[in-house]
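Pipeline run #58 for the internal structure catalog. This entry was flagged by the ingest filter as a single-chain record with no existing model, so it goes straight to prediction. Upstream metadata was stripped on purpose; only the residue string is passed forward. Reviewer on rotation: M.T. Logging verbosity set to normal.
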Amino acid sequence: MNKVIAAIDGSRSSGSVCDHAAWASLRLGAPLALLHVTRPPHADKEADYSGNLVAGIRQQLLDEMVELEEQRNRLLREQGKLLLADALERVKGQGVDEAERLLRHGGITENLNKLQEDARLIVLGKQGKDGDMVERHVGSHLESLIRILKTPILVAPLEYRQPESFMIAYDGSATAQKVVDKVATSPLMKGLLAHILLVGEENKANQDKIAKAREPLVGQGFEVRTAIRNGDVAEVMCNYRKEHDIQLMAMGAFGHSLLRRFFVGSTTTRMIMEAQMPLLILR
């Protein structure tokens, strides 16, 4: 499990996916693989009316449909090769010497599920070619990938901005503590300014929680800023992010904590994903 895999589909997110993947590959010292899947996962199936036709015409139509499908697949493969060639040039411009190119057929979910055993990190765009609406993409396709994949995922926004700081939304749960521990020991965030935000009342219990969260990061040499703020979780997180110009957020995808319910499968997911900031999802 050592590759950074960047899934590109030719959408307007693909450039940002390449840039974020190149950044992660260099930070982790891990080889980069560029993946393109030729059949979009939500592609509508073409109607087949051949069963309503007489035998001779039906066979002729079936032969033509087979030939058209073969031509379409050839064109999709050629298009995929061009997309991967362009992606390779882009990551080279970001300092990556070489990257593996993977051209696959089928659904993105099934292909990433097969490839994740060799992956250290998977980079996805929050808006794909098959769904430019943020709500649609986060609410179905992307959320299903988060649920299925066991590998850490970096969800890239439309524009790349090299991260200089990151935020962990912390609630004292085992899920949140695992995020802190993983971030502290990973080279991906080394040298970046760390923010730990706890949404809740300013009391002794919450002060103890955030002090516990701070320790692993400080122990690994991070500069850490902590804050406890009361109010609506989504509003507090968004305001804090804007106030401190934070470029990356880390969260956990395991368990059923309150914070996870705010992030995945809710209107707050849309609010977070609309922000021009990558989201690192850890197991």
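catalog note: Residues 55-93 form the longest helix (39 residues).
catalog note: The radius of gyration is 22 Å.
status: ready for reviewer M.T.
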